[in-house]
Design brief:
Glutamine Phosphoribosylpyrophosphate, subunit 1, domain 1, globular
């Protein structure tokens, strides 16, 4: 795992480009403390930089990596899990390898297949390939979006890096907010690619590659989510047996490294299955890690994590999390996030990653299961009633009612029923602030009018493969909130501590299996992740009987109790959000929200994260 950066088509003196590249590299030091590399080709107007966290081939795996005739250079952030079979195939075709590292296969595949090579890769990666004769750069991001990649077209040249902070550190992009990106964040709690909350800064979409040649940028899709019909199985146990087989193989491949690999375990089905299989695949006693809430036993999953550890025979480690730690941790976590994000509790992941990083350099986790096997409550069939009501409900009165109410659930109900189509209705389930609420809070409006939920519309290629309502909503989870919310938090919080998180549920073979599942194997009679529930006999009985309970934090209790004064001080600063929020209206809203029925306190917490981000990147 690494941090990568680069510049192409630069129009500044080579020594200035070298200094900018060095600053970008320094800003990524936390992602790769083991080694660094940099190459600059003034004649081609391009260069690459990398910070390396060494997990595979600790001796010869330094980057950038060159091909046989040294015309191409590669830097990669990630892991390729099928690299051994690809290496054998490439060697048979005459390719000569310089290292034993997994990511070198990308370079030689590219020589043979061009951008079509990315379809062959099973892994998590963001990579840059530079033709050092012409300065042409090819950027690529893995199919699920596990690894991030940002870019910016500036007057000085085309910049790219693993994190926003690295591009800002180049001093070649003006630091300014993107108000349309902030609109989208306020609407859904994260910012889907390609948009960010910085003006001029973009994210490469998952499953996409981008070519920069003589200043011309071309982007294409090499993989997209596609559901497919599979041959029916007379015995549903066959689905469970196949899932167990592909998941075991995925976990085994994710445990392949030249350093020990640990596991995050929460006591839920997903992380417990991965942890159990990891313990079986590990050549040494597995180390497991979990977070404990001593102040809030009602959400504390420690007994289940300990039960899994005892069952699997792991060496278990725990870290306590207390509300009093949030004012200290949140600014650190948000600075590493680089952009505001509400999709996952970053402070918890930050603390858990710090614990794991003290013992190992990588862990496996359970991310990606809910988005494939339907683990979220809003996917329940009882919510299908909303879509039936949409066919008969009068839209105009509902839109009027939605604008008038400040109640989160009633506003959502009205907006779903009044939405212009079903995809727009799907997006409303995610909404945090309505446009009316946003405009009421902002004292000055530097933004242009926007349809803030438009980025949540599915790509046409994926939408055409959705055979039912469940698949369409799962596709929204998988292609939007997963890569740009959940996986963003996982990457940034772990890499803040030089820790890699590997995700076997997002293995290419698991994805292929899940794409052909019938709806009845995802949810049945109120049972979420039905096919996964058939694997419960592998787990301790106490965990097998559990209902879904995701990693969460008691935000309502915190913000109405021990953190209330801190939150008000942070949000009601003399110039909240640089003076763009109406302080008097915000104070009234806070009084109402902190008594609201919203159990997750999404509105005040989203503003807390946003204000913290603003303070970190734009000052008070």
């Amino acid at each position: 795992m690494c941090g990568i950066a680069g510049i192409s088509d630069f129009r500044i003196p080579p020594e200035d480009a070298a200094r900018a590249l060095a600053r970008m590299s320094d800003a990524l030091a936390h992602r790769g403390p083991d080694d660094s590399g940099l190459c600059l080709y003034p004649a081609a107007g391009a260069g690459l930089a990398v910070r390396r966290l060494a997990l595979v081939d600790l001796i010869t795996g330094a980057q950038p990596i060159s091909n046989e005739d040294e015309t191409l250079d590669l830097v990669t952030n990630g892991e390729i899990y099928n690299h051994r079979e690809l290496r054998r195939e490439l060697e048979q075709r005459g390719h000569r390898f310089r290292t034993s590292t997994d990511v070198e296969v990308i370079l030689h595949l590219y020589e043979d297949l061009g951008t079509n090579c990315f379809q062959r890769l099973n892994g998590m990666f963001a990579a840059a390939i530079l033709d050092n004769r012409t300065g042409t750069v090819v950027l690529v991001r893995d199919r699920c979006g596990m690894k991030p990649l940002y870019y910016a077209e500036t007057r000085a040249g085309f910049l790219f890096a693993s994190e926003p902070g690295a591009i800002l550190a180049s001093q070649l992009l003006e630091r300014a907010p993107d108000w349309e990106g902030l609109d989208i964040y306020l609407a859904v709690g994260y910012t889907p690619a390609p948009r960010t909350c910085f003006r001029g800064l973009r994210k490469l979409k998952a499953g996409h590659c981008l070519t920069v040649e003589r200043g011309v940028v071309h982007e294409e899709t090499y993989w997209s989510l596609a559901y497919r019909k599979s041959a029916p199985r007379p015995d549903e146990r066959e689905y469970a047996e196949e899932l167990e087989r592909v998941l075991r193989a995925a976990v085994a491949s994710h445990m392949d490294a030249d350093v020990p690999i640990g596991a995050f375990v929460s006591g839920g089905w997903d992380s417990s299955l991965v942890g159990l299989m990891a313990a079986e695949a590990s050549s040494a006693r597995l180390k497991t890690f979990s977070i404990v809430f001593p102040e809030y036993p009602e959400i504390d999953e420690a007994p289940y994590a300990r039960l899994l550890s005892k069952h699997a025979g792991t060496e278990h480690h725990e870290v306590e999390f207390r509300a009093a730690e949030i004012p200290r941790i949140l600014p650190l976590a948000v600075r590493h996030l680089g952009e505001p994000c509400l999709a996952s509790p970053c402070v918890l992941f930050y603390q858990l990653s710090a614990l794991a990083a003290s013992s190992v350099k990588a862990v496996v986790g359970g991310e990606g299961s809910d988005e494939q096997f339907a683990g979220y409550d809003w996917l329940q069939s009882r919510n299908d009633l909303y879509y039936w009501l949409r066919r008969v409900a009068p839209a105009a009165p509902l839109r009027f009612a939605a604008r008038r109410t400040s109640h989160l659930q009633w506003g959502r109900f009205c907006r779903i029923l009044a939405a212009p189509d079903d995809q727009a209705a799907d997006a409303e389930w995610y909404r945090v602030f309505s446009l009316a609420e946003q405009h009421a809070l902002f004292s000055s409006d530097p933004r242009t009018p926007t349809t803030d939920l438009l980025p949540l519309r599915l790509d046409e290629a994926t939408a055409m493969t959705c055979r039912n309502l469940l698949e369409r909503r799962l596709a929204l989870e998988f292609t939007r909130r997963l890569p740009e919310g959940i996986l963003l938090v996982a990457d940034r919080m772990s890499m803040a501590h030089s820790l890699e998180v590997r995700m076997p549920f997002l293995d290419a073979n698991v994805l292929e299996f899940s794409a052909g599942l019938p709806a009845r194997m995802r949810r049945r009679r109120g049972q979420e992740k039905y096919v996964l529930s058939l694997l419960k006999p592998l787990l301790p009985a106490g965990i097998a009987r559990r209902k879904k309970f995701g990693l969460t934090a008691p935000m309502k209790t915190w913000l109405s109790g021990p953190l209330r004064a801190w939150a008000r001080d942070l949000l009601l600063d003399s110039s909240p959000l640089g003076g763009h929020i109406n302080r008097a209206r915000l104070e009234l809203a806070l009084a109402r929200w902190m008594q609201d029925s919203d159990p997750y306190m999404r509105r005040p917490w989203s503003l807390i994260v946003l204000q913290t981000w603003w303070n970190e990147y734009f000052g008070r």
